[in-house]
Specification:
There is one protein chain. This protein has 98 residues and is mainly beta. Helix content is 10%, strand content 27%. It has 1 helix and 5 strands; from the N terminus they run βββββα. Strands 1, 2, 3, 4 and 5 form a 5-stranded antiparallel β-sheet that branches. A hairpin with a 6-residue loop joins β1 and β2.
């Protein structure tokens, strides 16, 4: 079978419309970095392959198969006051509790 490429689309949840993320991803790719994803936004992705010789796409694979990605800020265990930073305020809180 001739090699092709992948097409990837994304939409914001719960009701966004799917939009293309890329021109083409090589068939040899094993991952894709969505560098335009916004922190705190939930997305749904779908992907399909396209044959390079005929341009024929496969069916979409994605949200109907349960793939949902959530991009968010990971909590830091040293951010004791939950302000999104680890700084002297956290140290002060730690020392006062000690």
């Amino acid at each position: 079978m001739p090699k092709g490429e992948f097409q990837i689309e994304r939409r914001t949840l719960p009701t966004g419309a799917f939009a293309s993320l890329n021109a083409n991803v090589p068939a040899t790719a094993t991952s894709y970095d969505d560098t335009t994803a916004a922190v705190g936004t939930n997305y749904e992705y779908r992907i399909r392959s396209v044959r390079v010789d005929t341009g024929a796409p496969s069916d979409w694979v994605g949200p109907d198969t349960g793939f949902v990605a959530s991009i968010g800020v990971r909590p830091c265990s040293s951010d004791l006051n939950n302000d999104g930073q680890t700084n002297s305020a956290d140290l002060s809180q730690l020392l006062s509790a000690w």
